[in-house]
Amino acid sequence: MSADASTSVNYLNHDRSIKSWLLTLDHKRIGILYLVVISLVFLGAGILALFIRLEQIAPGQDIMGPDAYNQIFTIHGVLMVFAFIIPAIPAILGNFVLPMQLGAKDVAFPRLNLLSFYLYVGGALIVLSALLVGRIDGGWTFYAPYSIRVGDSILFVTMGVFVMGFSSILTGVNFIVTIHKMRAPGLTWNRLPLFVWSLYSTAIVQVLATPVIGITVLLLFLERLLGIGIFDPALGGDPVLFQHFFWFYSHPAVYVMILPAFGIISELIGTFSRHRIFGYRFVALSSIAIAFLGALVWGHHLFVAGQSALASTVFSLLTFLIGIPTGVKVVNWVVTMHQGSIQLRTPMLYALMFLILFSIGGFTGIMLGVLPIDIHLHDTYFIVAHFHYVMVGGNVIAALGGLHYWWPKITGKIFNETLGRIAAGLIFVGFNLTFFPQFITGSRGMPRRYYDYPVEFESLNQLSTYGSWVLAAGMFLIAGYLLHSLFKGKKASANPWGSLTLEWTHTNRLPIPHNFERTPIVTRGAYDFHLAKDLFKDEPSGNGVDSHQVPDLEQEGRPEA
Amino acid sequence: MGENGSVFLPEASSSFASEVDALFNFVLAVSTVFFIAVVGTMIYFVIRYRRRSHSFVPAPGKDSRLLELVSIVFPTILVLILFTWGFQVFITLSTAPPDSYEIRVRGKQWFWEFEYPNGVVTVNEMYVPLNKPVRLKMSAEDVLHSFFVPEFRVKHDVIPNRYTTVWFEATKAGEYRIYCTEYCGTQHSAMLGMVHAVPEAEFNTWLQNQDQDIPLLDLGERIFSQYACNACHAIDGTRKIGPQLNGLAGITRTLDDGSTVVADDSYIRESILDPNAKVVDGFAPGLMPAALGASLTPRQLDGLLEYIKSLE
Q1: Which of A233, A451, B43, B157 could form a disulfide with A66 if both were Cys (CB 3.0 to 4.6 A apart)?
Q2: Structure pTM?
Q3: ipTM
């Protein structure tokens, strides 16, 4: 194979027709399709967030009326949760990376994988088509009976979420089978990259919990269409039952959002510390434990909703218990850095940001688990701040870290490191400026989903709005330099960061359509850097800029795995 | 921090607010310590173990059972303490004292309605006596709402077809905003009320004077149904255990001693306040409690009188 990858066959250039993209069965290309669509969703829902913040810059009406505002926060929530955060990491990075990390040619069911993508796109379009029918209102939680009374648009939103749910289930099934059946020789469970473990536990939740939201939104659909009277109190239904059903899925869904983020953080911290993950087994198995325990804590969303005091007490206890494996993971990541060899490249900056922001999200989560504190904080901006710290500070930051980390493998190009660091800084500052004040407005009493607010909350809301501009500047900067790198970026080497997982060590700069020339044989764990010293022998490996670094497989042949 | 609130918390104005705050501040303090420890360690490692040589591969870190065990057991003990402490305060918050003063609360799109035991109904303005437990019996008329008074640290969803309750004992006189914290539509953020916590004497005076702005006839009708007068007195011409009241005004009645009396204002008023002074022929004396009339304010009595006279 030629050293010049542009003349060699790779997964991008082997067929350039539109059809070859739209009907591709290649997990890498499907990952890129997801990347494009999900990025568009993120852009749209993010712009809506800027409108929300702009309206909140002062009390009273600023740029829109209450009906417009209520719709915007609803659409922002629905798109971000169901069409962005849930699929983002598994569908984009999981699809692209998982088979390569396993040493496999593709996922177990490539056609099913493509179907998942189109179900996702179809579901998202059905949700958006609701705008043609009427208002999308009521918040992303669709609490009955308000959601039923909004109008027929709810039929489209619920159907869209239902369809997207199938995308999620099929991806989960696909990943589970792939991980069980397609690992390369020698890739035992104890040698799996932690990203694989996290996708595995995510897939379990997707397969077990997503059907529940499917059933729930279907019931809501029937409630609206036929008035069957399950949730609507006017028909003798029970609105609290809806909340139980809803959170029975949507709490596990929180782990669909955060578990893959944990996986990415493990990859980043391992690679950029060049160190074995401390307590590898614990980190791996705790994800599985969290996946199951996550199904038992939904009731902590209902402490003030009318469930019994006894139920609230039990759910409070379980909530604390699930916090512990999560907290221990954070400790493990920090200890991994001990006596490592730490390099602060852009992806690692995101990993460090994750540790800070996710810790804040976690500690405030513990706070919310304490019953009397939750009674005060429930449904206030404190909750808004908490879940943005977990979902953005956790999931989105990890996704950005992962995107930067795998960008050279996806595109063959390296982005501008200086701009990368500046953008990471902007995001860190902007994020905290946006969401930290909301802890205070919330605990001082400002409810969420508020179009207007009493004047005493004005200064903190203003701060939050300014923060959203900084955050947006960071995001647009990232989009700018990533797109720029596609055309003008320096060529990356096959393994620019000095990683040990198969997608870096055993593929070309741009992988070939079936990933590997030969099935790799694995002889060490994913983070056994001390067993792979050859990789780092001569050259300044892992600085990510020069195009010729060790290990350049195309020149040196394959190093011993 | 303290009863006047902190950066994070508003003023503490109910009997258990400072208990909630103590918990909040405890979690905040412990979290802050842990957070600084974790992030501080992280920053220290990043500086101390920064990559000096590109070819350097550190020795693999050893897993430490002890560290794993400590990092599991120690937080577990902490959260169990938190849980137990939280549970105790939760019991206080969930259990209204039996002698609580009960106010009926109805959440509607987009206002709050408060009904007092004497039938007074107010909109968005709730008066409560200081240092006296108040229990709210709440329900919604249309969609979900949620009753929240930050200074009292109380919140509960308000649901159609179901009663939910909160209780509190206001300990500081003042005005406290009531928020709706469950999204309920266009004017969700305008669904604001106000609790006026006032000394008990002032509260009683306020309650008495609340009848002033209702037309006498409406007031009377409300008192009539609230006191369930029609349980004994028919207003449709049928016979119950008390004399019928429709068409009463101005007629002449025969009493059980054979005398007659014209049913004028004074007669009706006397029959309410002292039911056994004149007993209509054919009805048993001593059935109607005199205490009913005694509990009425003068204006309520006037209203009731007008209402009875209006019955045909």
Answers
A1: A451
A2: 0.87
A3: 0.91
